[in-house]
Design a protein that fits this description.
heterodimer; A: 310 residues; mainly alpha; MetI-like fold; two-stranded antiparallel ribbon; 2 strands; globular; disordered N terminus; B: 285 residues; 2 domains; 73% helix
């Protein structure tokens, strides 16, 4: 940004002094009431025990301490979150990058394919989760029927997984639902990134004798790294904030195998009316997201390639 | 030539790798559509057909009555009204507050502007979950629990929309404002008569995003809405699921009813909706 030019050309205008604030007023009020004050309020609540019926009792950091020292559900929830991050982020990246590469190749029907892949993105998560609950139904779902069909065709008794009664499979069901639902979004972002890569670079690479893989490795990937970086941040945040996927499809189960942080916040605050615990959880979530994002910003210097820097 | 994977590249016919890529992409597309097809197919089955093996894709006699039944039991007419009303009100208010704020940040010169803008951007980092409990308590204290206001008020302001619109307003040549000011127009008039008409594409982007956000929101209505009369579509659908578990023909009919309007809208405004997401993420990056 040309700060210097802006600085010299810029004058505060006294007649716009109050106008500026009047224009901002409605959104400022909203911001204060629904965002800034609640953040502080939430920090305060996290230091209390409060069921909304009796007055809040100050307990210091007890809510936080409990989460990390004696809350076995929280450890499971944290482990689930790590699993969802590790499973969803790379898979969704890889799938949508491949898809974006395919869709930018001028295939016949590419616009139609893009439209199809994007359909789940506009579908409400509740509907999507219900459809997948039915697809993965152990006894009558589409998936089981296909497995049995293949089994009888191969003359081998294949047994479909019991998706929702087995923690391992239930977690994968959440992953599959998430990939189905969100891949179209990442694909569109990747396509925009791919289309912004100047053709000259590929021509230069071809002249230098680069094959397909080499031009992908040395042109596409570096040029795409800002997009990859941005998506990594968005997808990790998304994996930390899953809710409808598990709430509707698995109910967080079996046991707590697919319980997400947000569902645990919901359960603590709105099923058991433990506002302090819920607020503490939400702050742990906030700090975790913040720290991860910060770490990624620090790491980006090592691998993200920005054209303007060179 | 062959090594250049670029959309703008002129082509003469398709090669074998093209055919393989096409086949894989098409197979993927079928896989993406399969859950939708399964939903529609189930929604037209009789209860016996739902549990049949091997799977029946096309019911012998389409049970259109499933739709009537699901529509009636779940009260989809009321849910539609609620969802449309809440989304429309949220979008309108959001456009109003965000365009005013975006305009002030982009075009007005007042002291404290840059600090306030930095404050705005800082709030973008706050995840919604942190404010969930305090805003719920606030809504309850205001007496708004279980009301339209509880759903509309928090989404009437969006920092992200204000940010997007600010970026757009900054791209409008300043000469336009200056000329209007010389002609005696005030800031309000410039906002309404010059900035807003020019910003139509950006306003459309904001409208699409906030509409989808409101329409698909599930967690917040789940927390602040109790009465059946106020259920939105996602909320009503999840309640319906709770009551009619394993009545898959009814559940899938309800799901189809819930999904269809958005998919139809999407079919009409596909380019628009997709580019809105792309624009939004670019603005965010």
């Amino acid at each position: 940004m040309n700060n210097h030019a802006r600085f010299t050309a810029f004058r505060w205008r006294s007649d716009q002094q109050w106008e500026g604030y009047v224009f901002l007023l409605p959104s400022l009020i909203g911001l204060f009431v629904f965002s800034l004050l609640p953040v502080l309020f939430s920090l305060g609540i996290s230091l209390h025990e409060w069921d909304l019926l009796t007055p809040p009792v100050f307990v210091g950091l007890k809510n936080f301490r409990n989460l990390f020292t004696q809350d076995l559900i929280f450890s499971e929830v944290a482990a689930n979150t790590v699993f969802f991050c590790v499973a969803i982020v790379p898979l969704q990246m890889a799938l949508s990058l491949l898809l974006a590469l395919a869709l930018t190749r001028r295939l016949p029907g590419a616009p139609l394919f893009r439209a199809i892949y994007y359909m789940p993105v506009v579908t409400t998560i509740v509907a999507a989760a219900m459809i997948f609950q039915w697809v993965f139904d152990r006894n009558y779902g589409l998936f089981s029927s296909v497995v049995w069909g293949v089994g009888s065709w191969l003359n081998a008794p294949l047994a479909p997984p019991d998706w929702f009664n087995n923690g391992f499979w239930a977690r994968w069901a959440v992953v599959i639902l998430t990939l189905w639902k969100n891949s179209g979004f990442t694909t569109v972002i990747f396509m925009a990134g791919l289309q912004a890569i100047p053709r000259v670079l590929y021509e230069a690479a071809a002249i230098d004798g680069a094959g397909r893989w080499q031009s992908f490795r040395h042109v596409t990937l570096p040029m795409l790294s800002p997009t990859i970086f941005f998506l990594a941040i968005i997808l990790i945040i998304g994996a930390f904030q899953l809710f409808g996927e598990s709430y509707v499809m698995t109910g967080g189960g079996p046991g707590y195998a697919t319980m997400t942080v947000v569902q645990y916040i919901y359960q603590s605050a709105f099923s058991y009316f433990r506002m302090g615990k819920g607020a503490a959880l939400s702050w742990v979530l906030f700090v975790a997201i913040f720290a991860l994002t910060l770490a990624q910003w620090q790491l980006q210097r090592k691998w993200v390639h920005y054209e303007s820097n060179t | 030539m062959r090594a250049i994977p670029d959309a703008a590249q002129p082509r003469r016919g398709y090669s074998l790798p093209d055919a393989i890529v096409f086949a894989l992409t098409a197979a993927g597309a079928v896989l993406m559509l399969l859950p939708f097809a399964w939903m529609v197919s189930t929604s037209l089955k009789s209860p016996a057909e739902v549990f049949a093996y091997p799977v029946i894709w096309i019911p012998r006699q389409p049970m259109w009555s499933n739709y009537a039944q699901a529509f009636g039991i779940a009260g989809f007419d009321r849910m539609f009204f609620n969802s449309v009303f809440i989304a429309t009100a949220s979008v309108t208010l959001n456009l109003l507050t965000s365009s005013l704020a975006g305009f002030a940040f982009a075009r007005l010169r007042f002291r404290g502007r840059d600090i306030l803008f930095a404050l705005y951007l800082a709030t973008l980092m706050i995840p919604g979950q942190v404010t969930l409990i305090p805003v719920f308590i606030l809504i309850r204290a205001l007496g708004w629990y279980d009301s339209y206001a509880a759903l509309i008020a928090p989404s009437a302001v969006s920092v992200f929309s204000a940010f997007l619109l600010r970026q757009f307003f900054r791209s409008i040549p300043p000469d336009l404002d200056e000329a209007a000011r010389i002609d005696g127009a005030g800031s309000l008039r410039i906002w309404w008569q010059i900035a807003l008409p020019l910003a139509r594409p950006a306003l459309a982007t904001v409208a699409v995003l906030s509409f989808l956000g409101s329409w698909n929101d599930f967690l917040w209505p789940l927390i602040v809405i109790h009465s059946r009369d106020l259920w939105t579509i996602p909320l009503g659908l999840s309640m319906f699921q709770g009551q009619y578990a394993v009545q898959w023909h009814l559940l899938m009919a309800g799901t189809t009813i819930a999904v269809l309007p958005v998919l139809l809208l999407y079919a009409v405004g596909q380019k628009w909706i997709v580019s809105a997401t792309a624009v939004a993420t670019r603005g965010n990056a």
